[in-house]
Design a protein that fits this description.
The structure holds two protein chains of two kinds. Chain A is α/β, with parallel strands linked by helices. Chain A contains nine helices and 16 strands. In chain A, 59% of the residues are buried. Chain B has three domains: 96 residues, Elongation Factor Tu (Ef-tu), domain 3 (Beta Barrel), CATH 2.40.30.10; 106 residues, Rossmann fold (3-Layer(aba) Sandwich), CATH 3.40.50; 40 residues, Dihydroorotate dehydrogenase, electron transfer subunit (Dihydroorotate dehydrogenase B (pyrk subunit), domain 3, Ribbon). In chain B, β8, α3 and β9 form a beta-alpha-beta unit. At the A-B interface, β5, β6 and α8 of A face β13 of B.
């Protein structure tokens, strides 16, 4: 049996498979399908300081091998989370990590402060990459200066593991990765969705109420793998890779490109059991290749 | 909720666009309780470009045979693939999903109004009502006779009225123009079909003080409350049509505001 455990900041994960924020609710939505205790971690829905109703319907358009969404961070706010959701999820036998978003730096800081007090919340993921909100979100993740600023300010109030989720909608993702690493990020996760758009040709109207939205699913995987590979060469902190992962082969591909852990995202909608199947697939792969630990595989591309 | 493989028992073409699939649990695993209005999410296999499952409402359940009926309209690549499945092949579904129509507590006059393929969940609802000794009427609408699906099946459970836009079956016009609405006073209307039809039915019900439930067909990704894509604006704010619905009382919705 190979070792599946990996380390991200202060977190020791039982395996490298986690689920991506916005695709897995608060974990409870999946408890009919899988034992959450078999996952390395669960990133819960993007949480903001104030409650948000999200964007208008329609928020989703299927595209070839993927989908566009413009949910717009619908959530009940951090206070609701702390009072009503945390008590339900805190005893799951996996790491529950809150994805934090905001419109201003002060929002991120205030939200992170409230979460820092929760004993069983060992980490947060700073979402500086949501493409579906008018203010904040991706705006923070597309310049080194603002990415650095929000990371620096949250670092001051959040002593536990801080992961920063990067946007792919930039000219050079490695610059942003370096900027947040320099300000104390313990890890980076990438990629969030790609800004996209789809039109209905009969009505000539946008398929999303917001006109543009975030593209995810297998159609983005090769670009995401490339970005992970680039960032792996640019930073020393661990990378949590994601973007269209559906199978254990996809997960191994991201690990080879430089990911210490991975997140399964949109494919959870199609196969709610996928994440657990991927854990089993990675385990079998390591045994078959006689690799002692999954950590030995990180970044180990055979260029020949 | 479960993810399971089912075997196709039969695939019947009802007209140019609609197929009736009868599926049964593999290994005869007993079916869980299912209620009218609930739906399944079908995986579209061997079609890599079609990424998401297709939500299909439960048309009928034959519990003793572990059999579920699904009425499927061909509208694109995904539904075409599903309709091309043959008897003996397997299909993977997540089920049962969503809320159901509420069965009445006391006797009264009940009208089940369906348009096109939206009649699907009303057959199962009609059966459940008959089992509880209610006597539902059905009002089925379509563009022409060919679009009125499963009429003989509906007739097993109650009186069936129809409207067609071209007058080829029943009264000519839309469901809300049918003369039965003038002749009989209904206490409860259940409806499913195209949104303009449901809005017209909801308006009629509200104006006449009739309790009314509608079943929505919002675009969705997951079907179990994770993606937050299928939201419907309600008096309680945005809610997932897949978990809080697809069936809503019209008083919860903001359609008529």
């Amino acid at each position: 049996m190979a070792r599946l455990d990996v380390r991200i900041g202060n977190l020791q994960l039982k395996n490298p498979v986690m689920t991506a924020s916005g695709t897995f609710g608060y974990g409870t939505e999946y408890s009919d399908f899988i034992d959450l205790g078999r996952l390395g971690g669960v990133f819960v829905k993007g949480t903001t300081l104030e409650p948000r109703q999200g964007n208008d319907y329609p928020r989703m358009a299927e595209t070839p091998s993927g989908m566009l969404n413009s949910v717009g961070l619908q959530n009940k706010g951090v206070d609701y989370f702390v009072e009503h959701l945390y008590p339900i999820i805190k005893d799951y036998d996996t790491h529950m990590i809150v994805n934090v978003s905001g419109s201003t730096v002060e929002d991120y800081v205030a939200c992170a402060e409230k979460l820092a007090d929760l004993e069983k919340m060992p980490a947060i993921e700073l979402n500086i990459s949501c493409p579906n909100v008018k203010e904040g979100g991706m705006a923070f993740g597309t310049s080194c200066k603002s990415a650095a600023q929000v990371t620096r300010e949250v670092r001051k109030v959040f002593p536990k593991t801080m992961i920063v989720k990067l946007s792919p909608n930039v000219t050079d993702i490695t610059e942003i990765a370096r900027a947040v690493e320099a300000e104390g990020a313990d890890a980076v996760s990438l990629v969030n969705t790609f800004l996209g758009m789809a039109l209905d040709v009969e009505s000539r109207s946008p398929k999303l109420s917001t006109i543009t939205g975030g593209l995810s699913g297998p159609c983005i995987k090769p670009i995401a793998v490339r970005m992970v590979w680039q960032v792996y060469q640019a930073v020393r902190v661990p990378i949590i890779g994601m973007g269209g992962i559906c199978t254990w082969q996809d997960a191994i591909e991201f690990i080879l490109a430089g990911s210490t852990a991975i997140q399964v995202g949109t494919f959870n909608f199609v196969d709610p059991e996928a994440s657990v199947k991927i854990v089993e697939g990675i385990d079998a792969y390591l045994d078959r290749h006689k690799i002692a630990s999954v950590e030995d595989l990180v970044g180990q591309i055979n260029y020949v | 909720m479960k993810v399971r493989d089912f075997k196709i028992r039969s695939n019947t073409k009802l007209n140019d666009r609609n197929h009736l699939l009868k599926i049964t649990s593999v290994d005869n695993e007993p079916l869980p309780e299912m209620y009218p209005g609930q739906f399944v999410q079908i995986l579209v296999a061997n079609s890599p470009q079609v990424f998401l499952r297709r939500p299909i409402s439960i048309n009928f359940v034959v519990k003793e045979d572990n059999e579920i009926w699904l009425l499927i309209q061909r509208v694109g690549e995904g539904s075409n693939k599903i309709c091309a499945l043959s008897a003996g092949e397997t299909v993977n579904i997540i089920f049962p999903l969503g809320s159901s129509f509420s069965l009445p507590d006391e006797k009264g006059n009940f009208l089940l109004i369906g348009g096109g393929v939206g009649t699907a969940p009303l057959l199962f609802l009609g059966k459940m009502m008959r089992e509880k000794e209610f006597e539902p009427d059905f009002l089925l609408g379509g563009r022409s006779e060919n679009d009125i699906l499963q009429r003989p099946d509906f007739e097993l459970f109650g009186t069936v009225y129809s409207t067609t836009e071209d007058g080829s079956l029943g009264e000519k016009g839309f469901v809300t123009q049918h003369s039965i609405l003038q002749k009989k006073k209904y206490d409860f209307i259940y409806t499913c079909g195209p949104k303009p039809m449901m809005v017209a039915v909801a308006r009629y019900a509200k104006e006449n003080g009739i309790t009314c439930e509608v079943s929505l067909e919002n675009l969705m990704a997951c079907g179990f409350g994770a993606c937050l894509c299928c939201i419907e604006k309600t008096v309680r704010g945005n809610v997932c049509a897949c978990t809080e619905g697809p069936v809503f009382n019209i008083n919860e919705l903001t359609w008529l505001d």
